[in-house]
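Reading is simple: each integer encodes one residue's backbone shape. The lines below illustrate:
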Amino acid sequence: MEIVNSSRVDNYLMVNGKFFESHQIPAIRNQLLKLDDSKWSTLQILQFKDPTLMLIISLVGGSLGIDRFMIGDTGLGIAKLITCGGLGIWTIVDLFLIMGATRERNAEKLFQVL
């Protein structure tokens, strides 16, 4: 049973690994190995935000805070909208941070289910 469970976990991480930070993968793997079969169906329907898509959205609408609204940072989205992306500075900084923030939000979403 452990081999089947281990291969299921490895397959899940292979398909969904891009949605998480690399340092989170071992902790996620350990939690998934402990998971019983009843929660796998719930886990399979989880939809994560794609970090690459969020970067593209940040390029297009980052000064309006659209990227932050989409990942659930409503307060930061409103602040970016009101300040026009911190007069452009915050928009540029977010181009480097948005992918990591998206992966962190995805991990939080996963750990809520686990």
